[in-house]
Design brief:
mainly beta; Immunoglobulin-like; three-stranded antiparallel beta sheet; two-stranded antiparallel sheet; 0% helix; elongated
Amino acid sequence: MLELVLQNNQSDPITNFVMKLNKNYLGLQLDEDFPQITIFSGQSQQINLKLHMRGPFAEAPVQPPVLIQTGLMCSLDLFYFDIPALLQIAFTKSEPIDFTLTSPVTN
């Protein structure tokens, strides 16, 4: 579950939200479309989005911190930001995933 809180600090309402998670090591993707909401001036809105795992996608082992680049487009503009993901999410009973954490070997 991805929990977001969006707040409108401008005078015009914000609408037409579209969100996408870029390809990431854990294979996390949105399981549903962003709800079509309007956030009016001075209002904040909490959004909960379901996620699913289809990965891993990266060839190299993951190195903490795991950051998932995300794009959010709305009536204002297109915004990019990183969402930190804890590795514990990869070890759920409903969505097992197999990957290896490695560190460099030195002689």
